[in-house]
Design goal:
Order of helices and strands: EEEEEEEEEEEEEE
Oligomer: single chain
Strand order of the largest sheet: 7-12-11-10
Number of helices: 0
Distance between the termini: 59 Å
Strand content: 35-45%
Largest sheet: 4 strands, mixed
Radius of gyration: 38 Å
Amino acid sequence: GPGVLPPLNYTNGSSGNCLISGTVIPTRVDNISNCSGTITYTWTFTDICGRTTTHQQILNIQPPAVANFNNPPPSATINCVDIPAPGVLPPLSYDNGVAGSCNISGTIVPTRQDNIVNCQGTITYTWQTVDFCNRTIFHQQILTVLPPPLATFTNPPASATINCPDIPPPGTLPPLSYTNGSSGN
């Protein structure tokens, strides 16, 4: 972590009055942006002879794995009767499979855009967020909606030949029912 500054021992390998040895704590400089960059440790000491010795360690930081959605729904073609209710916004979870402070996980509720004209069209669900590394996590499902079946008349009367006295009086308009056999909208 940021507070850990690993000490480094030094020695010149001599003995007696010529021995120069000790321990030094480094300085640390972080240069990290969007989860990648460097951490630089610099150990410096000046010996009794006035000479300065420096050692530097540079840690190249790789960003954590990008998160993926868990079981994202594929795009599909659906029948009109299977259109989800307008308020249905199915949440979707994501995870990068890394433990600890590099874990990227959560749950997103999508936006929904309906583009249905004349009983057919599309419904688009979009799940999108930006992780702490400034990377976009995105999934989109497009439901292509088929129009409902065409309605047909119920028991339509067949054409017929009738005798003159059987002519219906003017203004007689017999009603005829029709249905497409679906339900709901």
